[in-house]
Amino acid sequence: xxxxxxxxxxxxxxxxxxxxxxxxxxxxxxxxxxxxxxxxxxxxxxxxxxxxxxxxxxxxxxxxxxxxxxxxxxxxxxxxxxxxxxxxxxxxxxxxxxxxxxxxxxxxxxxxxxxxxxxxxxxxxxxxxxxxxxxxxxxxxxxxxxxxxxxxxxxxxxxxxxxxxxxxxxxxxxxxxxxxxxxxxxxxxxxxxxxxxxxxxxxxxxxxxxxxxxxxxxxxxxxxxxxxxxxxxxxxxxxxxxxxxxxxxxxxxxxxxxxxxxxxxxxxxxxxxxxxxxxxxxxxxxxxxx
Length: 290
Description:
By secondary structure, the chain is of the alpha+beta class. The chain has three domains: 10-64 and 84-93; 102-209, 2-Layer Sandwich (Tetrahydropterin Synthase, Chain A); 214-273. Helices cover 48% and strands 21% of the residues. It has seven helices and ten strands. Strands 7, 8, 9 and 10 form a four-stranded antiparallel sheet that branches. It has a three-stranded antiparallel sheet with strand order 1-5-2, covered by helices on one side. It is rod-shaped.
């Protein structure tokens, strides 16, 4: 596969000064030919003027981080990258390409993630042209190619991971931004390898459940959070009950049989795990009943 070939082109300022001087001489020769009535002088000056007009067509300017792809009758000659006023064969075809870093944000795509739930996802892609030959001749419209292939890669990547992290899942779209961004960049780069484009960065800019399931997914997330909080409360309550029983046993002043110990554990767990304020009950009887 062919790649970019850099060529040196002539500095434009010396050629411009030469052509301006030649143009002045040509004008003088034409006027002189007319004055003396010489057809050869006038004809020679006219031919020289035509040649000079053609040579003027060889000028072009390059700004920093720009390139010009040069072709001659359909054949690739090379790429010029030196900024400034330049001159090349006037019969060369000249196509300018920007080598500057560019970025775009994809539209919000609706896809099904790994578990089948519809989600909305969008990404920002930062890229630049690194091979002018491939960008010019390997694809028809490299900018449109970048956009379409980036969205295709985003769709493909989104189907390989679930939206959220849960048991049995190591990487999720919402919780592992760095890993997902790295894989997305690699996926896009692989698709754009033949277009002379380098992907500098790719990251998700929008991620949400689709509107038709957003409310149900929110309720599921809230339920998961409640369950996790309850598990933490129960764990702490059991630890506190163990601590209370150990302190009572260490004091030695109160002896509890198995039945009363079970009742005490039950009461303590109710108090500690309840999500409402407990109502105090005053026991006016004795601890032991006959």
